[in-house]
Every structure is written in C-alpha cells, then in structure tokens.
Specification:
single chain; mainly alpha; 3 domains; two-stranded antiparallel sheet; about 65% helix; Teicoplanin_resist-assoc
Length: about 350
Amino acid sequence: MSSALTPALVAVLVGCGLAVLAFVPFVAVSYRRRGEMTLWRSILWFAALIYSMALWTYTLLPFPQSHDITCVPPQTVPFMFVNDVAHHGVGSVGALMQNPAAVQVALNVVLFMPLGWFLRRLGGRGFIVATIAGFVVSMLIEITQVTGIWGLYSCAYRVFDVDDLIANTAGALAGSIVGTLLGKRREQRMDAGAPRPITATRRLLGMLCDVALIWLLGWIVVAVSLVLALFDGRSELAVPMFVFDAAAFAVPFVAQLISVLIGGVTLGERIVLIRALHGVTPAAVARPLRFLLGIGGYMLLLEWQTSIGGLLLAALVVTSFIMVFTTRGHRGFALAVAAMEVEDARMPHERGDARRP
C-alpha cells in the first residue's frame, strides 16, 4: 500500500470504530436536541468524524523509526512562502500550478476548508468561530509535530511552519464562507419536544440501539477485566475469567430486564423516545412476555450456541423485522403478542397507560 493511502485507510478505520462507539449517544442526543435523527445529518456527522481523523493521520503519519529520524528546524518567519513561490517562478498560470511552494500552500488551505464548512453546516457557527477553530486545531497539530509527538521522539521529524498555521486558518475561514454562500436556506425546524409519529425506521433504530448496547456494555466489562489484569501484577487474575464472561452477559441482560419491567420498553426504545401502552393484558404479564419474546429472548438465544439456538435466533430476528412493517403502529412481534401499543414519549399523559389496542 502506498504511503499516500495509508493515512486515509487509518482515518477511515479509526473513524468507523469511533462511530460505532458514539452511535448510541449520538442517537440519544439527536432525539433530545432535534427531536429526531435524519439520514442526511447522520451522514454529515460521520463525514466530519472521518475528516477529523484524516487531519491527524495526514499530518502525523507515517511514523518513522527512531533510528531513521532526521531532525528538522522550525520555520518561524511569517509569509516565507511568498519568497518560495517567487523562487520557483510564477510567470504563467501553468507555471503557478506546477510551482511546488504554491501547491503546498493551496493544499494547506484546502485541507482546512472542510473544518469551516462543517462548523457552519452542522454547528451553525460563523466566521469568527471557524477562524479560531482553524487556528487552534492547526496550532495543536504544529505543536505535536515540533515536540516530536509530545516527546515520543527525541526531536521534530516534521517541520513546524508558521506559514502552515496561516494557510490552515485561512482555509477554515474560507470553508465557512463557502458554507454560507452555497448552503441551503435554513429549514424551519420542529420543536424538539413536539411528538413525532412512530415509524418503522424509528422502531428499527431503537432495535439497533438495543443490539449496540448489548455489545457496548459487554465491551465495558471486558475492558474492566483487561485493566484489572494489567494492574494485578500476577500471571492469573484473582477473579476467574469466566466471572467476567458471565458479567458481560448479565450486565446488559439485567439492564434491559429492569427497563422493560419498569416501563414496558427497552433501553433502545427509551433512547428514541418511545413509550409503551397497555391494553387488555395486565402489565405484570405483558411486560415479562414482551421481554422474553423481544430483547431478552434475543440475548438468551445468542448465548445458546447450538444449531437449534441459531435457527430460533434467526427466526426471531426475521419475524421481528417483518412485523415492524406489518403490525399496527409498527409495534413488532413482541409488543403485538403482549397486546401492547407504542407512542411517542413526548405525548401528553392524558390517556394514561391503559389505552386498549
């Protein structure tokens, strides 16, 4: 793989990993700050995450071997690039486009233009904030370079260039201007506290959050076990490893069980602001039934690693998916069997929790 593609690949991989970790909090914040989560804004935020990773990978990678480092002095004279551009010749447009110094400055400007654009389109921030942000981010990168990644290397292996700082800051400002000139007119946004319809997409998003929480909570338990192993100082942990494996299953299982028994909804449904309503089936019966035929059954079958368990798990997943589209109010399999309804959690409580389906 070429050295030019390596930073891009690292940025994409790291960005995707961070996106997975941030998925549940992102959905929760979106529903509480904007009342919903749209595909377009989600794509923009994902692109912003990849871009932020690329800023660092393209300015720091590849890392050299310690014995291959060539120390470089900082360039602290502002606008030195003007002399460099003139030195290589600017007699024509073609010559300017082939001028390495001019190309370098242009690339530094272009590199930071998305920063200003994202701040304008996603954050609604103006020129001043974009300029300050461009300066601060560029300064952090330059300081990281001049300190040899904060002392990881004995000296700077990339040039600290004050002209890069100027060009990057100008790029962020230019990106903000472009975002203002080419951006669409701000759409009228609904009140974040206004109830929204329960759609199939919203129900599936809640299910996806439930699955993500299973893995995230499990990973937290595994991370705790690794930290304990790191600081234990012995070849074996005082607590057997199977205890951590059991905890990785029990923590999300119990959390989901408590959520359903208390409110009739899973953690994922709470994240997307869905509320459950009971019909003819008493809550003491409907909620455990809903749990066992929904997220609880999914987790138990996931642990039952046999051919029968796999078939039952596949049947549960497929049935739940199809019934999200085919049941009244997009209730899905478990809610329909438990004779429960769903509505937006922001709906007034006038009807209480006893609406008949």
